[in-house]
Amino acid sequence: MANLPVMGDVGGVTEELAGGGRTNGEAKAPAVRHEDAPRPVANVLSRFKPGPRSIWAGVPDALWNDWHWQQRERVIRLEQLERVLRVTPEEREAAVKTEAEFHMGITPYYAALMDPEDPTCPIRLQSVPTMGELNILASDLEDPLAEERDMPVPGITHRYPDRVLFYTTHNCPVYCRHCTRKRKVSDPTSAAAKRQIEESLAYIAQHTEIRDVVISGGDPLSLSDDRLDHILGRLRAIPHVEIFRLGTRNLVTLPQRVTDDFVYMLRRHHPVYVNTHFNHPKECTAEAFEAARRLADAGCVIGNQMVLLKGVNDDPAVVKELNHKLLLMRIRPYYIYQCDLARGISHFRTPVEAGIRIIEALRGHTSGLAVPQFVVDAPNGGGKIPVNPEYVVSHEGKRWVLRNFAGKQFEYVEP
Fold this sequence. Notes:
Layout: H1 42-45, H2 61-64, H3 67-72, H4 78-84, H5 89-97, H6 108-111, H7 122-127, E1 156-160, E2 163-167, H8 194-206, E3 212-216, H9 225-236, E4 243-247, H10 250-253, H11 260-266, E5 272-276, H12 286-297, E6 301-307, H13 316-328, E7 331-337, H14 352-362, E8 373-378, E9 383-386, E10 392-396, E11 399-403, E12 409-413
Parallel strand pairs: 2-3, 3-4, 4-5, 5-6, 6-7, 7-8
Antiparallel strand pairs: 1-2, 8-9, 10-11, 11-12
Helix pairs in contact: 13-14
C-alpha cells in the first residue's frame, strides 16, 4: 500500500465546518488548560492504547490532532479506500453502487482503526459500504421513526410532551453505514440553514412545555464552536428550557474535535448532557479516552447509546467489555437500540431476542452501572419502548406487540 500522508480533498465539507465569525459578539475566550485537573491512575490509562496511524504514519502530530484536517482528509472515494485497506470485490462494487444512495466518508483517525485485511472487522463494517445496503426490504422505511410527521416546523421533531429533537446539520465526520437518517445525513439539500435554525429556536421559545432539547443532526459537533455557542446561548436564554443533550459520535470517530476551547465554551451553558455512540471496544482508544476526560472534567454528563448490529456487537462478551471500558471513561451505558427499519440496513439487524440475551448476560454478572436499557424505537413514531415484560403486550414468532409510554400499542415485525 502506497504511503499517503495527505489526501487533499474536502469531500463535501461545508463552510459550517470551517469556523466562521462569532455570532454572539463576545471576544474569543482563551483556551483553558487541564494541567491541574485530576489525572486518571496509571492502571486505568494502561487499558487504552493510542489508535494506529496506518498510511498516515508520516503526518505530523499537529495535523493529525487538528479536527479540521481530519475532516478535510476524509476517505470519500474508492481509490482513497484502496490505499488504506485491501478492498474486496464486493466492497469495490458496493462503493460504486451505493454512492447515489448514501455517500462514504471516513476520517483518517477512524479509517486507521480498520483491519486492512479483514472485511468482517467491526470498524470496517460500520464505515465501508457493502452490497447488503442495496437489499431494500418491503419493511424498510425512508423515515422509520416518522420524524417528519411529527415536525411542526422544519428541523424540530416534537413527539414527547416535554422534549424535542433539534436538527442542526446534515454533516458527520463518518457516515455510518447503519445510519437511521440516510434520507438527510450527507445530503447538502437537507442542510439546516440560518432561517431554519431561527424558526426552530422560535418554536422552542413559544412552547413552554419544552424543558429538554436533544441537539442532533448529522452531528452537531460538525458545527464550529462559534455556531454551537450561539445555538446553546439562545437555548439557555429561554426560561423554560432546563437541559439540553448533544447527540454526537465525534468521541468515537473524531475525538480530536473535543478541544480545550470547545469544553471551555460548553462550561458556560451547564447543565450540558452528552450522548455518544460507541458500538465496539476497538473504538475505546486513548484519544477517545482523552475526549471523554475533557468533557467529564468540564462537568458534562456523558451517556452511551449503542446500536445492536449483527457481526459488530451482537455478542454479550463484546458488549460487556465495551461497557466496562465506557465506565472507565466516565461514560454511562444508557441504551442498547434495536437496529431501526431504515432503508438498506437489514443486514445489520438482529432478532429482538439477541438484545434480550445480552441484557440477561449482563444483569447480575456485572455492576448495574454496566447494564443499559434495551429499547426498540417503534416504527411510525411509537417512540422508545423498553423490551421488558411491562411493555411487551404479546410475542409470537417474529411479531412483537409493544406498548409505549402513552399506552398505545405498536407492532414490530422482524424482517
